[in-house]
Amino acid sequence: GTIADTLTRGVENVTDTLTESFFEPSIRLGVTGLSRAGKTVFITSLIANMLDRGRMPQLVAEREGRLLTAFLQPQPDDTVPRFDYESHLAALTTPEPVWPDSTRAISELRLSLRVRPVGLLAGLQGPRTVHLDIIDYPGEWLLDLGLMDKSFAQWSEQMLGRMGHWPGGEALAGQLSGVGAQEMDEVLAKRLAAAYTEVLHAARADGFSDCSPGRFLLPGEMEGSPVLTFAPLPLVEQPARKSLYREFERRFEAYKAKVVRPFFRDHFSRIDRQIVLVDALGAIHAGPRAVEDLRQTLADILTAFRPGGNAFLSQLLRGKRVEKILFAATKADHLHHTQHPRLTAIMEALTRDARDRARFAGAETQALSLAALRATTEQVINHGGRDLACVRGALLNADGTRGKQAAFYPGELPEDPGHLLAPARQGAEKWLDTDYKVMRFAPAPLSLKPGEGPPHIRLDRAAQFLFGDRL
Ligand code: GDP
Predict the structure, then answer these.
(1) To test ligand 1's pocket by mutation, which of 84, 85, 99, 337 has the most ligand atoms within 8 angstroms of CB?
(2) Ligand 1: does its nearest atom lie under 6 Å from the Cβ of 373?
């Protein structure tokens, strides 16, 4: 093109951005949580229920009939993978529904809403467009923030300490001691990194949450690269230049600079509103240690929302902050609704420290329990003269298909959440006096028959808290 072309294009771009920021506000909504917390199901269900309205009565703009249309649009960030909404929805809405593939990396989707303004303005102004940019990213990546102010030696010490509790961890710790002074050897490096990754996966499967570096579990496109090929090592005093210790230390620093920093700079720092999804029931099922580990991990994750505590982050954010944070316990449909307040209380207790701190930093916070997609119905069963509040659904077979229908009594959650979090319980392998069990249900075929209730639990409340005030 000519210079004139370039100039006019330049001007168009400028007006585009101006128009967008002045007249079409956008809200960047972060959705995070540890792997299997329910991010993919949450986003898919949120979008489906926004596109096809009538099932979100607690979203005020919808109840007031001010949500005119909702539609998907190309997202603003060209280099971020698009959230694969259509495939996920297709998995959930076939006659034999299956759970969609879980989040592996960051993705994004823009949902645009045409909204009629409230009250007086309604007569004067036409409908407005509000863009909701939904950013899905693994909570594991937030844990990496904790690496930014640690040296390789400090991080190694911490992880080697934790490893003792993990399946296979002790054996690996044995292997790692003494190798640091050896000469760097790529085959050995690869073997140690693979063994460390395997132990991290086993720890996760066992209910342990803090398994850093986050990308070892969810590597994305960096799989196999040197920044992901290291492991913690016991301190080596004055390591030789070509030693394994020196090289692992260098890779650890490269991981911080080339993996962690860009994520926080390019994505995290731009989030306005955030939901943190937590599979609290899963941890309760796994036992006291897993609950305590989850509590600590949440506290670590949530330091990301308290930038004052982290020099790297406060420099990056320069005063910008997340305005609202919602902590949501997922899969509440595993419990009869009479147990939901207890689940919410547990969620509140798990995040209390973090919420106090976030509030201090100016963000508004709330805790609730929800089910993005209900897989069960409620049923009261009389068992030996006692009424048991059960949930009923199709059990999930090991291969992901639907198994037989079962009514299920998960036991009672403790009335006092402190009971789950008491220090005395942390050493115990099992809960002493709760027989709490969890099951996996297959997704139910969507039935929107009247009287069966909405296909979600409190998704609309979550939406109201997260962006209802901007509609
Ligand atoms: P992600 O790793 O955070 O993206 O987690 P997913 O959204 O893939 O959810 C992980 C698994 O949790 C799913 O495969 C389901 O088995 C289960 N799950 C998620 N949301 C719900 C829900 O609302 N109800 C029930 N019953 N199960 C759910």
Answers:
(1) 99
(2) yes
Q: Which domains does the chain have, with CATH numbers?
A: 3-137+267-373+457-470 (3.40.50), 151-260 (no CATH)
Closest ligand 1 atom to residue 37 Cα is: 3
Q: Tell me what ipTM this predicted complex has.
A: 0.99
pLDDT digits (tens, 9 = 90+) for 366-417: 999 999 999 998 989 888 888 888 889 998 888 888 888 888 887 788 778 8
What 3 state SS string does the chain have?
A: CCHHHHHHHHHHHHHHHHHHHHHCCEEEEEEEECCCCCHHHHHHHHHHHHHCCCCCCCCHHHHCCCEEEEEEECCCCCCCCECCHHHHHHHHHCCCCCCCCCCCCCEEEEEEEEECCCHHHHHHCCCEEEEEEEEECCHHHHHCHHHHCCCHHHHHHHHHHHHCCCCCHHHHHHHHCCCCCCECCHHHHHHHHHHHHHHHHHHHHCCCCCCCCHHHHCCHHHCCCHHHCCCCCCCCCCCCCCEHHHHHHHHHHHHHHHHHHHHHHHCHHHCCEEEEEECHHHHHHHCHHHHHHHHHHHHHHHHHHCHHHCHHHHHHHCCCCCCEEEEEECCHHHCCHHHHHHHHHHHHHHCHHHHHHHHHCCCEEEEEECECCCCCEEEEEEECCEEEEEEEEEEECCCCCEEEEEEECCCCCCCCCHHHHCHHHCCCCCCCCCCCCCCCECCCCCCCCCCCCCCCECHHHHHHHHHHHHC
The whole-number pLDDT of residue 9 equals: 44
